[in-house]
Amino acid sequence: MMRHTAIAGALVLALLCGAGGRAQGERPTVVGREIRNLGPGPVDEGLVFAHTSVMPGEELDPAAVARDVRALLDSDRFSHVSVEAEPAADGVRLVYVVRRKLELDGRVRVEGAARFSARRIRKLLAFDRGGAVDEQALGVAAAKVREAYAKRGLNDVGLSWETEVTNEEFGLASVTLYVDEGLPQRLRRVTFSGNTAISDRVLKKSLRLRAPWNPIGWFQKTRVSDLEVEAARSEMREAYLDRGYLDVTVGPASFAEDGDGNVTLGFAIEEGAPYRLGRVRVTGVTAFPVSEIERLVRAESGEVASLSRVRGWAGAVSDFYESRGYVDVRVRPALTQDADDRTVDVALQVSEGGPVHVRNILIRGNTRTREKVIRRELLVYPGDRYDGVKARTSERRISNLGFFSNVRRYTVDTPLADRKDLVFEVEEQRTGQFMVGAGFSSIEQIMGFVELSQGNFDLKGWPHFTGGGQKLRLRAQFGTRRRAYELSFVEPWFLDRKLSLGLDLYRNEVDYRDYDVRRTGGAVTLGKALPGANRISFRYRLEDVEIWDVADTNRYVYLDNPDEAYFFNREEDTLESSLTVTLTHDRRDNAFIPTRGVRATLFGRLSGGPLGCDTDTYGLGARAVGYVPLWFGHVFRLRGRYEVVDAYGDEDEVPISDRLFIGGGRTIRGFDYRDVGPKVVRVAEGVDGPVVISYRPVGGRTLALATASYTIPIVKGIRFALFYDIGNVWRDVYETSFENLASGAGVGLRLDLPGFPVRIDRAWVIEKDDNLTDEDAWVIWIGYDP
User: Fold this and answer.
1) What's the pTM?
2) 292-308, pLDDT tens digit by residue?
3) Maximum CA pair distance of the chain?
4) Tens of pLDDT, residues 432-466
5) Could you give the domains of the chain?
């Protein structure tokens, strides 16, 4: 429409120029300009003339006038623009005939919507007060609303709108959007016909349907989205191609709907017969020995002609070339099918290009993050021969920083044929968080917290303090039994080396049943990444430990040795200096909610001795947890933990603040918190001999624990869990016995809320370590599984 209007105006001017009786080729002079408004509302004369280039006193140029008409339409202020040339003395006067677009007088009115609020629909429309209103803009905005409804399974929604002029003088109008949502299409049944090689159950996976055991599906049917159906068709076809059915056809989905909006979805499949691999060869190779490339393509004649495997060969050959500087390499699989004997020959056609070197590496799109924070993640450097594998790994490392919503790489040609610039383009995302929450824990009871964190902190980045790649976290937690205040800072590239430096300051107060403990201290940690997903860290800690408010100062004796006395009358205030060395191996797929992989840790800790201060103890330990993905998102998890702690030198015993405790919480559920293990008892003489009046857990020096769990996803963010815990704590160091293990089992829910995960478990005791250990059936915990 725009182009036609501009051309028509130019043709009118050309005719007028010729009608003036001037000599051939002579153009009239523009002697004036004016504006004629066809619609309501005022027209800004300055705005119109700001978009025009033809000025009074100049010769009339029809091409320039056509460009001006196009510029006025592109301003998005006018629904109509044309130019008339009126004869005048000594030339022509240009008349710009315009119709100004109406402006929205307020909010768009929405009627008939139930699935979405009017506020949500107005947000999709993106029409603000004062915005231009025309049919084209309304049509584009309505398409966004239809797309949102389609995602909810409402594909037949009807949208119409009414525009009414409310103020002629100022050109204001109201817009009312009428929504006819119709019936939601709910998937009741899926049928397949013609499939013999792949079962209905496998094909249904492509639709991402709820599992039969998911209770949500018992009360709420799955809605149908056209986009999801087409994606499922493509996934079904890929499944057949991977099994060698190269002639497969998955027909368009058929919909059969009853009067209540329930849909039966059907797919007709023509499988054909499977193909087997015939000859596999590589062509176009000149830069390297063909035998070296053919080693990447390992196939035996008669194998299933899996298309994904063919694509994998092409990717391996491409990686081979790109890792050697051939950035323009193209590998195209060509398939030659023999329908008679059902074989397919594969030719990987290689277009090599030439080797190139990296001239410059350019970083684009980083508005807050310092360039050096990105560059230190790169494995390629200017002057190197281009390595596509390293470039792809660098892209992934930048993305893993968590600072960017999108990262992509590409090359740019340079004047030199064998040189290219490598570009990493990023899109910044929010990296800071402020969280406030409250909850209930079966151990800490009522609790609340406030946390401020910045994952892309910059200590020197005044005034915004972002972009340096450092991590800062401030947290305050308060409750009926625990109060904790923490400040932590991490520099992941200390001294511009791949060496992390962590600084921590903290103060924790815990109210146990028998006494209170306050820990105030600080720590410095140096960490270094090692090959093979391994990491080593060294942590020095200086901590003041206070024990006070001892509840009971009576004489107690050990449960397993009545001749050995124990007193709780020693309030302590000690200063502990310790060094911990930790070796970690981590191959989990996710740090918070893993589904596969292993994380194992070995550590050793030394307190006192050459490090000074009041406590001479040491500790050793190992922890491991493994995740095995099963079916339909089910995950089996197995965790083990073994630790010892002991005194040395002039120290007679391990302070109670450093001893090992177990029971409840994240250890052995079903038991009272810290209640499993060594105990002391207070006794009195009864008629039939000594009687236990009360007992207290005192911890031990050896701990062993194992946990097996099985999680089942219900809906996004909610999982059902089964678990079994077993373990104990023993008085002496390196002492273990399988005769008095405590164990419990139960069920639970995992609420994976971002920033506030909740664990709710109901446990039953299977075996006690002794008859005094208390039970606690419910465990409510805020945090991820340990």
Assistant:
1) 0.69
2) 999 999 888 788 999 99
3) 138
4) 988 887 766 666 677 788 999 999 999 998 888 99
5) 2-100 (3.10.20.310), 102-180 (3.10.20.310), 186-270 (3.10.20.310), 276-351 (3.10.20.310), 357-428 (3.10.20.310), 512-782 (2.40.160.50)
